[in-house]
């Protein structure tokens, strides 16, 4: 919670559903970001009254457990563990988080099985599932998801193919009454936060903007690259051949993206020559991303490391404390609501 921050009754009312679902003051989620969202950033977000996610990624079990314990020590319950269903350690992560009785579990990456969603719910957690298509949203609600994170292709990191603009109409407008829908992908301002709530979103998830906070421990070079970039610099990778299906990744263009493309071409040739299988090649590509993201975020190698970033990167230029970021978003959202009211009254 931000001391002294006044929220109008209109904004408070629009935030109510998300606040009560997420057990927080402001329904602003700091999305899970491998190597980026570690306990320092997460603790700052939960203390500021937002909601944050620990990125399980492919983390070793003991490290994930330690991260959960560190964030739990804040005494706050407004955080989740974000599980990647295609990560090799996924099953052991799921077992750990259900045993540790997490307040919230997020399924990302691909489709969780219905029994996995049920297992998470039976542990007492509220379950949020990613949806990057309308079909996925429908399926996740059928499986028992308590809420959806609708993420459009403008987002940073691994992405689907449909833009936030279209998903708002397909997912938010169709399912927003059934379950709380949190919107993500290309959202970087308080004004847009207000419009998402007006459209029916329960809240918003951001990733790229949270990188530009003081409490985010990403290397200075990583943040400097963000500060220098415009929306069009955050490009999505392509799939070159259907025999090697790859999930697109949005990142700032650099040698790291070229290296990924070269690796993809080599692996396609290796599949043709019988030197590898599709599954092994897909695993190699995912391992590439984890390693190269670490190179950029932790080591500061922004030439060949991966600079995963969303198109909203063009909207953020300065590094500020988390509290200031949350305060700015809420204040801007409130101003926008006043402007909307004025427009409607004439
Ligand atoms: C550097 C970076 C790493 C990310 N890593 C993950 C991840 O490990 N798991 C995940 O579910 N989403 C990941 N994301 C996506 C974010 O959680 C969030 O949904 C996304 O950034 C929202 O869109 P935005 O970038 O426009 O704010 C990542 C995003 C960024 C920028």
Structural summary, described in words:
The chain is of the alpha/beta class and 346 residues long. The chain has helices at residues 9-22, 39-47, 61-72, 90-99, 114-122, 134-143, 164-175, 190-199, 208-211, 220-228, 255-272, 278-297, 322-344, and strands at residues 28-30, 51-55, 79-84, 104-108, 126-131, 147-151, 157-159, 181-184, 203-206, 234-236, 248-252. The protein has two domains: 9-218 and 316-344, TIM Barrel; 230-297, no CATH class. Strand 3, helix 4 (90-99) and strand 4 (104-108) form a beta-alpha-beta unit. The longest helix has 23 residues, at 322-344. The model has no long low-confidence stretch (mean pLDDT 96). The structure holds flavin mononucleotide (FMN).
Report strand order across the widest sheet. Answer: 1-2-3-4-5-6-8-9
Q: Could you name the CATH topology of the largest domain?
A: TIM Barrel
Q: Indicate the low-confidence ranges by residue numbers.
A: none
Instruction: Give the topology string: H per helix, E per strand.
Output: HEHEHEHEHEHEEHEHEHHEEHHH
* Residues in β-strands, percent: 5-15%
As a percent range, the share of helical residues equals 40-55%
Distinct small molecules: flavin mononucleotide
Shape: globular
Number of strands: 11
Main sheet, how many strands, which sense, barrel? 8 strands, parallel, barrel
Task: Provide a count of the helices.
Answer: 13
């Amino acid at each position: 919670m931000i001391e002294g921050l006044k929220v109008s009754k209109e904004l408070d009312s629009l935030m109510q559903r998300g606040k009560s679902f997420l057990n927080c003051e402001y329904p602003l989620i700091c999305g899970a970001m491998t190597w980026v969202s570690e306990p320092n950033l997460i603790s700052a977000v939960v203390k500021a009254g937002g909601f944050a996610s620990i990125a399980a990624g492919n983390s070793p079990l003991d490290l994930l457990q330690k991260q959960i314990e560190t964030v739990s020590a804040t005494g706050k319950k407004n955080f989740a563990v974000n599980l990647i269903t295609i990560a090799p350690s996924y099953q052991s992560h799921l077992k750990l988080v259900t045993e540790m009785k997490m307040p919230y579990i997020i399924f990302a990456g691909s489709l969780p099985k219905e029994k996995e969603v049920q297992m998470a719910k039976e542990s007492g957690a509220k379950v949020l599932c990613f949806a990057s298509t309308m079909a996925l949203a429908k399926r996740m609600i059928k499986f028992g998801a308590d809420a959806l994170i609708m993420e459009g292709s403008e987002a940073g990191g691994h992405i689907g193919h449909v833009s936030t603009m279209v998903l708002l109409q397909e997912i938010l407008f169709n399912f927003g009454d059934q379950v709380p829908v949190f919107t993500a992908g290309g959202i970087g301002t308080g004004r847009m936060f207000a419009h998402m709530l007006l459209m029916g979103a329960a809240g918003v998830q951001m990733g790229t903007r949270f990188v530009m906070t003081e409490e985010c421990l990403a290397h200075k070079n990583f943040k400097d690259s963000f500060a220098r970039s415009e929306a069009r610099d955050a490009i999505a990778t392509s799939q070159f051949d259907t025999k090697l299906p790859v999930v697109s990744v949005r990142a700032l263009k650099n040698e790291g993206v070229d290296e990924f493309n070269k690796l993809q071409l080599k692996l396609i040739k290796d599949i043709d020559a019988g030197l590898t299988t599709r599954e092994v090649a897909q695993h190699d590509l995912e391992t590439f991303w984890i390693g190269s993201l670490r190179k950029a975020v932790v080591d500061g190698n922004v030439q060949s490391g991966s600079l995963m970033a969303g198109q909203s990167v063009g909207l953020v230029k300065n590094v500020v404390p988390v509290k200031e970021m949350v305060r700015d978003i809420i204040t801007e959202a409130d101003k926008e609501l006043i402007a909307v009211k004025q427009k409607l009254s004439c």
